[in-house]
Amino acid sequence: MHTLAKFLARNKGFITFMLCMIMFRSAVADWNVVPTGSMQPTIKIGDRILVDKAAYDIRLPLTHISLLHLADPQRGDIVVLDSHAANERLVKRVIGLPGDEVAMRGNVLYINGHAASYANGSYGGIHDDLLNPAHYEIEHYGDMRHAIRLSVNWPSPASNFGPVKVPAGQYLLLGDDRDNSMDSRYFGFFPRGEIVGRSRYVAASLDPQHHYLPRNDRFGAALD
Q: Catalytic site residue 92?
């Protein structure tokens, strides 16, 4: 016990700093590694995204307990959540809000009976395109506008679903890589309390296909 007390006394500054960092990353801001391609082309494999954990709530550090409600996720937000259904942390886009009716027909999105509009897009540097060619569209609905990736040869059976109505207190989330994303089409709706933050920027990016060299053009890149 005496040895422990001496250790704590000698290192109290470092220990205090580490505790503050843990609290900060838990409740205010953090970064998250994206190891999969479910949000391509918006988020590339190897991106480290900034997570604003105070975007919607001020939470008790190291818990999901909300101390102060600030806002609710909006359609088009890229959110980070600790999903009980998926048993892992996910990064997805908010598509359906509580009360919305959402459907998809041949990868065309319908919200409350109205179809999203689409325009051709062009994106390079997506390694998955080598084995699984894809084309890109700009999906536009209301204030939501972002790119989606659609497989040419292996369309997902989930390219058709619904209509489903989003219950109160829950959200329908999809990945931007529509034919390569485990999202609400598989796990169902996600509770509001599982959403821990919003991401708008890439902090850094390492390319796993090129010996994890940094992608300089991705540093600080905005996520649409």
A: yes
pTM of the model: 0.90
Position 88 confidence tier, pLDDT thresholds 50, 70, 90: very high
What three-state secondary structure class fits 59?
A: strand
Domain boundaries, the chain: 2-218
CATH class of 2-218: mainly beta
Dmax over CA atoms of the chain, in Å, equals 70
pLDDT at 205 over 60: yes
- The beta-strand segments (E) located in 101-187 are 101-105, 108-111, 114-115, 117-121, 134-141, 144-151, 161-165, 170-174
> Which residue in this structure is represented by tokens 């479910």?
38
Can 199 be counted among the known catalytic residues? Answer: no
Task: Name the catalytic one among 53, 83, 92, 184.
Answer: 92
> What is the predicted pLDDT for the residue at 35?
80
Choice among 38, 151, 184, 205 that is catalytic: 38
